[in-house]
Amino acid sequence: MSETPPLHSSIVALVSLAAGIAAKHPAMGLCQVQRLRSLGVSEDHIQTAVEIARHIRDEAAQKLDEAFDEQAAPPTADSVADIPVVSDGACCTPTASGQACC
Hints:
By secondary structure, this protein is mostly helical. Helices cover about 50% and strands about 5% of the residues. The protein is built from 3 helices and 2 strands. Strands 1-2 form a two-stranded antiparallel ribbon. A hairpin with a 2-residue loop joins strand 1 and strand 2. Helix 1 packs parallel to helix 3. The termini are far apart.
């Protein structure tokens, strides 16, 4: 079985940059931007990776907000049974085997 060659360092830096942006990493991927520039990666390619990462990050945040809003909506008569038990201010749902977690 032959060994797969490692990814080119510019690919690793692009992936790292995009992941850091999408994950809202505090370092903001600035180290990877400098690395990509030193490797000769074009500004257009760097900006494309940034744009895609921001789009994924923003889309994920929007979907999380929508899911939160749906779950936090005032209960209807049909949905009251689905509301988690609140104990001491914390949401509490039983484990799969029925064990209480709060």
